[in-house]
Amino acid sequence: MFDWITGFLNTIGFVGVALLMFTENVFPPIPSELIMPLAGFNAAQGNGNIVVVIIAGSLGSLAGALMWFYVGLWIGRDRVHRLAARHGRWLTVSPDEFKQAEDWFARHGGAAVFIGRLVPTVRTFISVPAGMARMPMGRFMAYSALGTAIWTTLLGLLGYFLESQYAKVEAWMNPVSNIVLAGIVGWYVWRVATYDRRTAARRAAD
What is the distance between the alpha carbons of residues 84 and 90, in angstroms, rounded to a whole number? Predict the structure, then answer.
């Protein structure tokens, strides 16, 4: 995969960085933890400017975040409420819990978007609840851009300064991504298994 990404970046240049980062956000078969360090490594080898690499990666990533925002906007809260009422177990959220999550996002939406853009896997989908909550576009773009810029700058500079040792970045980031992904899967299984108990407890409390 290293050779394929490197060859792609060498062929298309900055546009390739933006395209890969956009694709990683829309459907993440290739993690940004590989794309940006390799792009930074290429820049260190004289194949581009590291500042332009970071800007291109940030723009591509931000475009992907914007696409997911519009997906959330299209789905809408009413449709999700109906889905929660019919298929709450597999969505792992009851209508009451969804309303509670809505209230939380209304209070902390900006911080959630900013922090979410810094967390592997979560960064891809945090835009959906922002769209569902109809977060003002300017606010969404500001928090997304800030989190995205920090993430792409960190990864790009790691590859740039490590140069031929860029594989160490991948060796460090991949386990982190895997741990986060395993945690998300475990959380989902737990939510499905405890759905009836949580719903009963909430009804009893009401």
Answer: 9
Residues 141 and 108 sit within 8 Å (Cβ to Cβ): no
Helix (H) or strand (E) segment spanning residue 116: helix 95-116
Q: Tokens for 86?
A: 């019919």
Distances (CA, A) of 197 to 74, 193, 205: 32, 9, 12
pLDDT per residue as tens digits for the range 163-205: 766 556 556 656 665 676 677 678 778 877 887 777 777 667 6
How far is residue 98's CA from residue 132's CA, in Å, rounded to a whole number? 12
Half-sphere exposure of 35 (CA within 13 A, CB side): 29
At residue 133, what are phi and psi to the nearest 5 degrees? -80, 0
Q: For residue 160, which of 48, 14, 58, 20 has the smallest C-alpha distance?
A: 48
